[in-house]
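User: Hi! Is it possible to get a structure for several chains at once, not just one? Here's what I have:
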Amino acid sequence: MPLDNVVFWVFAPISVASAIGMLLVRNAVHAALFLIVNFFCLAVFFLLLDAPFLFAVQIIVYAGAIMVLFLFVLMLLGVDSNVPIRERLLVQRPIAFILGAGFVVELFLAIRAGVGFATKAPDAFTANEGGNTQAVAKVLFGQYFFPFEVTSILLLVAAIAAMVLAHRRTRAVTQAEIDAAEDDHQEPAPAYDAEAAS
Amino acid sequence: MRTPVAYYLMLSGILFMLGTVGVLTRKNALLIFMSVELQLNAVNLSLVAFSRLHNDLTGQVLAFFSMVVAAAEVVVGLAIIVAIYRRRRSVDVDDVRELRW
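Assistant: Yes, the chains can be modeled jointly so their relative placement is included. Here is the combined structure:
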């Protein structure tokens, strides 16, 4: 059995099992940890598919940045507050599973008709000539340069939007007010006390 | 590469289905968000598999863009969830139904 086959059949059940675990587990932190396992499995698949650049990006961006953000928000909101959510989706749950099973059957037929289950990719991935990262950079900064620049604007807008949305409004204390308070021989107004101002 | 591409596509489809079921059955907004991430990753896997099949790097570049968009989406979505939690003390999506109609 070739090596990449072995790696695929080792990691495919792990990724599916971690996804199922994420569905079934009640605690949100445990679900996040299952999702991290799933992201690492997908990174291994990227490596098998001759995409080492995406392998690194997957681990750095997804398993690193995004999941840290998720866990950070989970801790910020409090782990205990997520437990007593009422599960009242008694009708919706079986329907969701039935629709999901139907979707997989449909995909099975579509893949068999479109690609075929015996189709193998060419042995050599010639698009990777001179290194995967260099080749991806050539395509990214040549053919897809404008979309790349647009994504930078998107990230900037997202960062500003997150600051605006998550910002807790506090009353601004000007330097003149602090001076006035000092002139009256009083304590200056607490500038950073968010709880008192809200 | 001796694993047929269809196996990767099937795996991607199964992961996408599990993410969809997660979106449909969960009520915690954060867990719904994690399921959406699972769906995005499943699609990335199929993009990279097609890139390998057709010997073309466009699929990998597209997966890269989808990762960037997913990162932006997570940032904004989590900020919205934090803002809702500040106002309502809850992340249950049933508590936020003003925008439904």
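Chain B touches chain A through 73 residues (CB under 8 Å). Residues 58-88 of chain B form the longest helix (31 residues).

User: Great, thank you!
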